[in-house]
Write a structure and sequence with these properties.
With 382 residues, the chain is of the alpha+beta class. The protein contains 16 helices and seven strands. The protein folds into four domains: 98 residues, OB fold (Dihydrolipoamide Acetyltransferase, E2P); 72 residues; 79 residues, no CATH class; 89 residues, Tetratricopeptide repeat domain (Serine Threonine Protein Phosphatase 5, Tetratricopeptide repeat), CATH 1.25.40.10. The strands form two sheets. It has a five-stranded antiparallel β-sheet. Strands 5-6 form a two-stranded antiparallel sheet. Helix 5 packs across helix 6. The chain is globular. The two termini are 48 Å apart.
Length: 382
């Protein structure tokens, strides 16, 4: 796929099925020289620097109105027009949902040595139509696995295991569980989409009598949503509780199913499809999710304890807990700043400077770190 706005949109319009309205929008971008841009930097009330989403070209745009409703990292759609010796936004820019900014940062360079780039699925995702792009179950699994952080070799190994498992008596969760755990650690935000693609691919490998119809597929999605809600509320802490909660939910009337219980709706559909299996039982692996929740709780507790110790002048003890926190969670600019403060009061000026610089690398405009670093240098300690 070419790395240009025009080339990507041409490919998308010609080769991928999606809602007609979206194709019309894409054609409008192409024919009217609209562009999709990421906000690289801006000065409120003065100018902004925009980077073409599908290329490397950057534009310095002088537009005071534009800078007031966007921020660094946003994705916008608009038309840039040269005017004398400056560039302006010729139309009102359209700010895309925050998910769009996340999509463009996903590394697509894991398959067949391809350079990192967007796929037509991502383009559709910018318009909320990702699932309407027609792909084989296998191709969608490859796509979502890449989004979740898996290499081509890892994904092909999973596909082979699923294909072999479907021929025998293997349970899908036994195969999927290790990959689900990896997905949680690689890219937690994309794990749900990855697992959905995995189960859909598994289902496509089964004989017709074992395949699930649209109602059962919807029931499984509803059950997963219910389970995730219970997990978030900490009403489920282990696998047995999860299985019990789901089975209880399966027998309750559900308005989304015209008042039928999920179990009743699935049985009726299976009879219509000629599926002789009338026992309805689902088990969703929650081990990784529960472990992740426990890990997050522990990390939060360590952070709060370290913060309190630092505020009370117990900086050595605070640093010890911050280090434990860093083993459980991603370290952010605030933690780096707090560690810098403790190092400063302990006389570890070099360490303090290192943490302040790391904080600013993560968030260049972090005022606390900027002031602290300036103060450190002003004292001749940095």
């Amino acid at each position: 796929m070419p790395d240009t706005n025009q080339g990507v949109l041409d490919d998308f319009i010609q080769n991928y099925d999606t809602h007609p309205d979206n194709k019309e929008i894409c054609a409008g971008f192409k024919n009217n020289w609209y562009g999709i841009f990421e906000v690289v930097a801006l000065k409120t009330g003065k100018e902004t620097i925009l980077r073409e989403l599908f290329g490397a070209t950057q534009h310095h745009v002088t537009d005071t109105a534009l800078t007031k409703f966007i921020q660094k990292g946003d994705v916008i759609i608009g038309r840039i027009l040269p005017f004398e010796d400056i560039k302006i936004m010729a139309t009102n820019a359209v700010k895309m949902p925050s998910e769009a900014a996340t999509i463009i940062r996903i590394n697509r360079g894991r398959f067949e040595g391809i350079k990192a780039k967007l796929t037509p699925v991502d383009v559709a995702g910018l318009f909320g139509r990702k699932n309407e792009v027609k792909m084989s179950k296998k191709d969608r699994l490859l796509h979502e696995a890449g989004s979740a952080g898996f290499t081509a070799d890892e994904t092909l190994k999973l596909i082979k295991e699923l294909e072999e498992g479907a021929k025998g008596t293997a349970m899908p969760n036994d195969i999927i569980e290790p990959y689900a755990s990896k997905a949680m650690s690689k890219n937690k935000d994309m794990t749900e989409y990855f697992l959905k693609a995995v189960y859909e691919f598994w289902n496509s490998l089964l004989p017709f009598s074992m395949q699930k119809g649209p109602i059962e597929t919807a029931v499984i999605e509803l059950a997963m949503s219910y389970m995730q809600e219970q997990l978030q509320k900490r009403k489920i802490t282990n696998q047995d509780e999860a299985d019990k909660k789901v089975q209880e939910w399966m027998k309750l009337p559900n308005m989304a199913l015209d008042g039928k219980s999920p179990e009743q709706a699935v049985i009726e559909e299976r009879k219509q499809l000629g599926n002789p299996e009338l026992r309805v039982s689902y088990s969703f692996q929650v081990k990784e999710i529960c472990a992740e929740n426990e890990k997050e709780d522990k990390a939060e507790k360590l952070y709060n304890q370290a913060l309190e110790l630092g505020q009370n002048g117990k900086h050595a003890a605070a640093l010890k807990l911050y280090k434990e926190y860093c083993e459980l969670s991603d370290i952010n600019h605030v933690v780096h700043h707090n560690m810098a403060v403790s190092h400063f009061f302990l006389g570890h000026y070099k360490k303090a400077k290192e943490h302040l610089e790391k904080a600013l690398k993560l968030k260049p405009d972090y005022e606390k770190a900027l002031r602290a670093l300036k103060d450190l240098k002003g004292r001749g300690l940095g």
